[in-house]
Please model this.
Amino acid sequence: MKVAVFSTKPYDRDFLVTANREGGDRHELLFLEPRLSFETAPLAGDAKAVCAFVNDTLDRSVLERLSHHGVGIVALRSAGFNHVDLVAAHDLGIVIARVPAYSPEAVAEHTVVKRRSKGTPDRRRRGTPFSDNMMLVC
Model:
């Protein structure tokens, strides 16, 4: 299945390529750096599924546009789903999948990284709170 993966960073790509390979390369992954929005939804092209992050827009207008292009599944890379119009997804027959929970240790690990990260407020303002080097600390 072709999957359009929005809001991707290099570490997302590395992880998803490896996971897909270990799963038998069942999916064709189309990595897209822009956030998912009404304007960027057509970038999904002929993908049957979209993988989105918490900062992506999944309101009725975006879901309608995705549905028009043949998307039937939205897989979230987050536990939260308050940015998804679930009623619209149901009306359009789009299946929404999400991360059921995070590791209880994840918050503590993130706190340790944050305490050691010089310049994080500047990177957060630019929309890139983590550098590749910081991901190695995790």
About this structure: The helical segments are 10-22, 60-68, 86-92, 106-115, 120-125, 132-137. Residues 134-138 have pLDDT under 50 and may be disordered. The radius of gyration is 16 Å. The longest strand covers residues 2-5.
